[in-house]
Amino acid sequence: MDTERPRRVRSEFLYFALRNRKLRIGLGILFFFVLFALIGPLLTSNDPNAYVGPLAQPPSKEFWFGTTTFGQDVYSQFAHGLRSTFIVGLIGGGVGTLIGVLVGLVAGYRGGLVDEILNMFTNIVLIIPTLAVLIIIAAYLTVRGILTESLFIGLTAWPWAARAIRAQTFSLRVREFVDLARMSGRSTLRILLTEIAPNMMSYLLLVFILQFGGAILNAATLDFIGLGPTQGMSLGLMMNNAVLWAALQLGMWWWLIPPGAAIAAIVGALYVMNVGLDEVFNPKLREM
Amino acid sequence: MGRYLGRKLLIYLLTFFVAVSIDWLIPRFMPGSPVETMLARFSLRADATEVLRSYYIRAFQLDLPLWQQYLNFWSALFRGDLGVSTWLFPQPVFEIIKRAVPYDLFLLLPAIVLSWLAGNRVGAMAARVRWLDNTILPLGYVLTATPYMWLALVLAWALGNVAGLFPIAGAYSFAVRPHLSWAFLLDALWHWFLPFLSLFLVMFGGWAIGMRNMIIYELESDYSRYLESLGTPRSLIRKYAFRNAMLPQITGLALQLGTMVAGALATEIVFAYPGIGYLILQGVQNQDYFLIQGCFLFIIIGVLLANFIIDIVYVVVDPRTRLGMTGE
Fold this sequence. Notes:
The complex is a heterodimer of chains A (288) and B (328).
Chain A: H1 4-19, H2 21-39, H3 74-110, H4 112-127, H5 130-140, H6 146-157, H7 159-172, H8 176-183, H9 188-196, H10 201-227, H11 235-244, H12 253-281
Helix pairs in contact in A: 2-3, 2-12, 3-4, 3-6, 3-7, 3-10, 3-11, 3-12, 4-7, 5-6, 5-10, 6-10, 8-9, 10-11, 10-12, 11-12
Chain B: H1 2-29, H2 34-42, H3 46-59, H4 66-78, H5 93-126, H6 130-145, H7 148-162, H8 182-219, H9 222-230, H10 234-270, H11 276-285, H12 289-317, H13 319-322
Helix pairs in contact in B: 1-12, 2-3, 5-6, 5-8, 5-10, 5-12, 6-8, 7-8, 7-10, 8-10, 10-11, 10-12, 11-12
């Protein structure tokens, strides 16, 4: 293998990636919120759950996002909540992708009975509504942290990824280079990791981005129902509190609107990025 | 056709079996004893705690061997016995959920069907009209990325609280009791509109984007090109493309059911709409475990039934499945 080719491929990828408007917009929004999550909590000394200010105040110079019915600082809740959103996305999306990749690779490469069983299992988990399962698991967990929540979200989110990767593996495993690797006596694991997986790297990235967004949305719904982390703060929990303590009836828009707006912006940015990346990887889709 | 539906039915039965088993397993094998947790949260006097503990042990049948517990769980299920609610003691969970289900159907069915139909129409139109494509596509992405409860909150705040056009809580006014009359029906529709609209909008975005992309894909495919080269009118090619693009959208409907139900749960909570989502919130707040478990089972059964109906529709729409030409 010459070293010239991969470098050229990479620079070509970068060229199209930087030229793609959707990718630039999506990345820009995402970058903004990542920075916010990293720096935002440092700009305030208020604990997100502490009662620090006057009750139910609209945004002011002192409390940038206003205060809750109990006098908590909405800005501090928002900034800390944003952090947990990204943590859930990374861990939940990561676990979901990992399991999906493993199940999909093995089912697609092995075929036969292994595939039959794994596929049946995948179909079953696919039909069961994820959130319903998460609800009864969370209801029986007395102490819930953001990490356990992400883990469970990842554990229930993998089926569609597994199905998609299985289909990709099916088409790759009959190629000559895989046959060659098999004839040269490589182990199945080596073939999967060094021959098959690298050939769908772009695909795996897209799967991860979608899993990332899905985990964020699932966590938000779970938190909103009141089954979120028992300690700490999250954007879903903010909305849950706002609804329970009549922010809607009192017209406290500064408490109601920001958390969901951030989630919508982040997930929207991820989707747009996904479409952009798809165009970068697949020349057929590029706008001329 | 028989083989296709039979295979699906087998998967649904297995799924139901797994779901019921999860419903049975989780209270028994979660870390920490749920019975003790429930008792601790009630903080009763010592003798009252003992009574309640023996009640829970009998209710969960923890004094029996595991296999016996499991079999009893199934037989109770078939008798419609889902336990007794602690929130609305002593009403059976089954009765409480039965009262809520009509509201769910009233909200979900129109939202799903109408958003699917409208999304497909508008998405197909967007694929051929440039200005529509430039507005629908970004709007669609924003809508699908929106968490259901947030759009519900925004609508409730803007149209309910600020503009004062719609009520923001309940399925009908507090002053009226449910009965059959035009006045009540209008009142119910008035309360129904905002939750419906927010569900409709989020779903609509997804269908429109899906259809638009599928249509473009179909128009690029060989059969369209061939028809084009034969000089077939564009409208006819579009018609074929639309028909072919419908099939993945039907499959998508089945795959999206779980997400849509979850969205409906969250939306009901925002509007205090008395469906299953609202019951789950009450169950969570009142530590009513039987109620939560019952809701779980109802959601599973609903989703499985809907899946099966979609399968039948698919068989009707796609002749290939009837001839056994496709396995999945």
